Amino acid sequence: MGVTSSDLYDETDAQRYDEDNVSVSTPEVLNPMLDVLAELAHAGKVLEFASGTGRITVPLVNRGLDVAGIELSPHMTAKLREKMPPGRLPVVVGDMATATAPDVGNYSLVFLVFNTISNLRTQAEQVACFRNAARHLRPGGRFLIELWVPQLQRMAPDLHLAPVQFETNGHLVFDTYDLASQECMSHHYRPQPDGSVRYGSGRFRYLWAPECDLMAQLAGLELESRWADWSRSPFTSASPSHVSIWRKPEH
Hints:
methyltransferase, 6 helices, Rossmann fold, SAM-dependent_MTases_sf, globular, 4-stranded antiparallel β-sheet, 7-stranded mixed β-sheet, Methyltransf_25, 30% strand
């Protein structure tokens, strides 16, 4: 396993993960994403960086794709194993910036969704992640990321805090930013059945779409498409997120 600055999801995190992310695991949310990923794969090999509990990889395998994963947390991988055996979905436990999956150099698609590149909290590691994706791709293959656009305009003056999410189930999210280092901490408040509130936090390094393009260029990849969402809406200065695809040249 490589050395990474990412927070390691422990056993408690892994047990809670699927329940905490029910709202982004419905068919209405997943199917547009799965359609795009299957189309880009062109029936070739697919690799997910940060494969987690299999929220995306398992349904892709069920669609008939040849899928593998790299995941830092053995606890998250153990949850995936409850859903699908290694023979159908191999997963390497390691750092997505450095770990090597089987059949390196032969993947049609490497993807990294749900803002997870920000889990790497240094620019150098994020650059290494792009290079690792390029290393796994065959010529003509594609690297896709889904990433939020930091909502700095929402920050209260002098507080460096921005509201991010207010769900109907009462789940609240606030982000705090260090503008000098591009570090971010997300603060989650989830109501519990007993009336209490469970607090959790995660540390990230945010990055901008043009910064991603430079990282891709350093890895020898070329920007092919950028959308605001999985429905391929145009990406604009008002978009809160983007889905970006870079292609490895044929020669």
